[in-house]
Amino acid sequence: MHQSSLRLLRMVDDGRPFSKDFKDIFSTLIVSLLPLSAHRVRLTKVEYTFLSQDAISNLMYLKFSQSNRLPDPKDPSRIINTTTAITFSMSKDVARSICQCFINARLIESADGKDQQVYTIKGSIWQLTPKGITILDRFCARNGIQQNQVSELANLKATRLVVLERDSQTDKLHYDQGTIEVVFRRLVGADSCNAMSIMTAADSTSMLEYRHSITEVKTTAELKVNGKTYRDTFTGKAIIDWLMNYSTIMEEREAVAVATLFMTYNLIESVTKDRAYTFQNPDAGNNIFHFSKHAIYQLTQRAKDLINGSSSPRRSPEREHYTSYQRKGIFKDSNTQRLDKILRDPSVRLLFREQSRDTYCEENLTFYQDVDEFIRNSKVVTRAARRELNMTTKAGINDSITQAYRIYHAFLAAGSPCELNIDHQLRNSLITRMTKAVSQDATMIDTLEEVISLFEEAQDVVFKLMASDLVPKFLSNPKYQQQFRSYYFGAVGKGPERG
């Protein structure tokens, strides 16, 4: 059977598609361009590159298909082939605009080593950045795409990204203080062997400097400003470069917002401001972060205490609530309760994802969150369709079923690239339902409700698996012990509402 749907891409204010779609479009485009060839730049050939016009042509009519061949549970001699097709169609101008967004997001860069910030349709040669390679590699792993070039690129240049979560409805980053502090610790290298990457100059003019496993912001060991000596300083540009290159932030204004919160939460302070930047941004106020190589910053005492583990625990109202219950002894500790707490806190969830990735179990958390979003959206759609079945609600039902197939092919189908460990009976029920053809509109509503129920069962299985296997390893990992001091994992509330 074949399942497809048509919907408009949701866009953020600056014209970039929502982050999830944006990364899928980028990865699908690069897969369509494979194998990347060598192109001559001046007097040398640069491997793994592509031409501007080739990317534009492919992007205008982009298609990604995912197929799965499964034996029929009722008749093993019969093979059922299911295919999910995703097609992106756009005008030439929109395609060029999205390619420009790829540059802005630091996913591609000019192959000639110059800091080219404008995507020209003709004559330019481009290559993937380490960030772009990492996103491509994750996309291919999730969708079962096996390409030798992707593996070669990942081995050569892939980097480690801080995966920041976004609101599924607005695509805005989570800016809670806990998450900002986790990002800051990564930025200054507090959780790695070296405290910081020392350079004679903290200004980075090329992304090439960030490629050789440098995972901390660049700092200047000693700097004199107006006769006073400052140690371990860094420029505003260096901080933004790090955030853009080593996290899933997709635009510079998001990076500036995060850097501004570093100041708000008293983690960095200004040594000297860029007067030209202040003149160009007169309405920014005194606390705005200066994205400039002439603006100098240093760590605050609070930041040093945070890095050294001597800062007082930061407690949100929710954490205080749980702590008070702990004192009264009302809640009983369990790993399922601890996992519920982890999944509710964006900053702890970020660390939990890192642990899951390090232990090759990230697909469990990704599946859980994807299904959570699917269930929430699909229940809204089915309620609307039950009230009135029209073109809008039909499109919503179709889109939800397509989303279900994507999750099914990625995580639940036998032999899927990120196949999860669920029981045989549940897997057979899923195969039976997902391989059954659906054509009538009324039947589609019933089908979606049945799929929701089965996905809820699978989600519960994965939740218990994470609680029993991943949570104990996570909480006992020495890497995170310092950050756990301000958390209490024993007392939690109810799980996510699904109604």
Notes on the structure:
The chain contains 17 helices and twelve strands. A hairpin with a 2-residue loop joins β2 and β3. A five-stranded mixed β-sheet has the order 8-9-10-12-11. It is globular, with a radius of gyration of 24 Å. The chain is 48% helix and 16% strand. It has three domains: 139 residues, Arc Repressor Mutant, subunit A, CATH 1.10.10; 119 residues, Winged helix-like DNA-binding domain superfamily/Winged helix DNA-binding domain (Arc Repressor Mutant, subunit A, Orthogonal Bundle); 153 residues, Regulator of G-protein Signalling 4, domain 2 (Orthogonal Bundle), CATH 1.10.167.10. By secondary structure, it is an alpha+beta fold. It starts with a strand and ends in a 24-residue tail after the last helix.
Chain-wise SSE layout:
Blueprint (H helix, E strand, L loop, with lengths): L1 E3 L14 H15 L3 E5 L2 E8 H9 E12 L2 E15 L2 H13 L3 E3 L14 E4 L1 H14 L4 H10 L19 H11 L9 E3 L18 E8 L2 E8 H11 L5 H13 L3 E5 L2 H6 L15 E4 L1 H8 L8 H12 L6 H10 L1 H13 L3 H26 L3 H22 L11 H11 L6 H35 L24
Parallel strand pairs: 1-5, 8-9
Antiparallel strand pairs: 2-3, 3-7, 4-5, 6-7, 9-10, 10-12, 11-12
Helix pairs in contact: 1-2, 1-4, 2-3, 4-5, 6-13, 7-8, 12-17, 13-14, 14-15, 14-17, 15-17, 16-17
Average pLDDT level: 81
The radius of gyration computed from the alpha-carbon positions, rounded to a whole number of angstroms, is: 24 Å
- What's the total helix number? 17
Largest sheet, if any? 5 strands, mixed
For the termini, the CA-CA separation is 31 Å
Structural class, by secondary structure, is: alpha+beta
- At CATH level 2, the architecture of the largest domain is Orthogonal Bundle
Total strand segments: 12
The third-level CATH topology of the largest domain is Regulator of G-protein Signalling 4, domain 2
**How much helical structure, as a percent, in the residues?**
40-55%
How much of the sequence is in beta strands? 15-25%
Identify the overall geometry: globular
Helix and strand run: EHEEHEEHEEHHHEEEHHEHEHHHHHHHH
Which blocks of ≥5 consecutive residues have pLDDT under 50? 193-214, 315-331, 491-499
By CATH's scheme, which homologous superfamily of the largest domain applies? Answer: Regulator of G-protein Signalling 4, domain 2
